[in-house]
Amino acid sequence: MTVPLLKVDNLRIALAGDGATYNAVENVSFEIGRGEAFGLVGESGCGKSITALAVMGLLRRPLSLGGGRIALDGEEIQDASPAEMRRLRGKRIAMIFQEPMTALNPLSPVGKQIAEMFVLHEGMGWNEAMDRAEEALRQVRVPSPERRIKDYPHQLSGGMRQRVMIAIALACGPDLLVADEPTTALDVTVQAEIIDLMAELCAAKGTAILMISHDLGLVANMCKRVAVMYAGRIVESQAAEAIFATPSHPYTRGLVDSLPRLGERSKRGRQRLREISGVVPSIAAYPAGCRFNPRCPSVTDVCREMVPEATPLPAEGLVRCHHHG
Ligand SMILES: Nc1ncnc2c1ncn2[C@@H]1O[C@H](COP(=O)(O)OP(=O)(O)OP(=O)(O)O)[C@@H](O)[C@H]1O
Ligand SMILES: [Mg+2]
User: Fold this and answer.
1) Which of 197, 118, 200, 109 is nearest to 146 (CA)?
2) What is the mean pLDDT of residues 126-136?
3) In this structure, are residues 95 and 52 in contact, taking their beta carbons and an 8 Å threshold?
């Protein structure tokens, strides 16, 4: 049996509120193979980003790891010390965020920020590290890297800044890239370029991707497998191509139905989107049973009372719905 690159097993993230502790995420399990692209999708607030932060060892109060195991290449890291996690971050697991401006240091030229990775993680001298930084900028196709290397983040466009973030993240050849809504802040055309660039560089280097987005279409295009989260739990996971053909959870069906379809657009002259009615409940108000039950078109009494168990789907998929099958 091969050991997955990342195995998240029964992850629980605790949120300390006033007087009570809530499970912001619970019972979340997934695996990512070496070099595989894996997608995590779901509406705003469902727990995607904090799941990513847990993997990176970056949960901070009021959030904390409440339980479960996170293993990188078979080695459990959920109890690793801050110093050990700092060593892993950048070198073996790297993350890019939605807004590169907040992740980049505004007072430091971008070349230096890339070079720092080589100095910190590979013990390189600054001269060699700056040469490597220029090469890294060239790889992410920043034009005139020999000049851009001296630019400060504010001198670059949003798309260029995200390219710099990708260069920093991939500098030391990590095994896993965690990309949390990496293109949401960008124009649509730039979005596609950045996604293609990320996918291409990761494929070339054999880097696995944990791609996080609210956009099922984007994730399914890029990833081999997709997990759908709702209100802190994974409700379904499937191979990306199967999720459109056979969405099995009513929430996933809602997501699939809300995607614009080319055929419908041309027929009606404009795209028709069906939205899932209602909103994601807040953590303190999660309903009993299946958390999707207040919005679910197929709800019955059992849904309001019991948490649905995972039912296996073909090709190692699973769905958590009382009415599946
Ligand atoms: N620092 C924090 N303090 C308190 N609550 C938090 C904190 N960070 C996240 N949460 C809560 O945890 C839940 C999950 O948040 P998370 O940011 O993971 O959602 P998300 O799926 O990434 O949403 P989005 O698509 O908007 O990025 C939300 O209810 C959010 O309000
Ligand atoms: Mg988020």
Assistant:
1) 109
2) 97
3) yes
Percent of the chain at pLDDT above 90?
83
User: How many angstroms separate the most distant Cα atoms in the chain?
Assistant: 67
DSSP codes joined into one string, 37-104: EEEEE--TTSSHHHHHHHHHT---TTEEEEEEEEEETTEE-TT--HHHHHHHHHHTEEEE-S-HHHHS
Ligand number nearest to the C-alpha of 40: 1
Which of 304 and 274 is assigned the larger pLDDT? Answer: 304
Q: What is the pLDDT of residues 111-124, one digit of tens each?
A: 999 999 999 999 99
Q: How far is the CA of 195 from the centre of ligand 2 (A)?
A: 17
Instruction: Spell out which residues line ligand 1, taking CB within 6 angstroms.
Output: 15, 24, 42, 44-50, 62-63, 214, 283
Give domain 6-34+41-80+175-187+204-319's CATH number out of 3.40.50.720, 3.40.50.300, 3.40.50.1000, 3.30.70.1350: 3.40.50.300
- For residue 18, which ligand has an atom nearest its CA? 1
Q: Please state, in angstroms and rounded to a whole number, the distance separating the CA atoms of residues 280 and 306.
A: 19
324-to-234, 299, 320 alpha-carbon distances in Å: 15, 12, 8
- Say how many Å lie between the CA of residue 144 and the centre of ligand 2: 33
How distant, in Å, are the alpha carbons of 3, 54, 63, 78, 128 from that of 70?
13, 9, 16, 5, 35
- Give the whole-angstrom CA distance, residue 124 versus residue 119: 5
Q: What is the pLDDT of residues 5-45, one digit of tens each?
A: 999 999 999 999 888 999 999 999 999 999 999 999 999 99
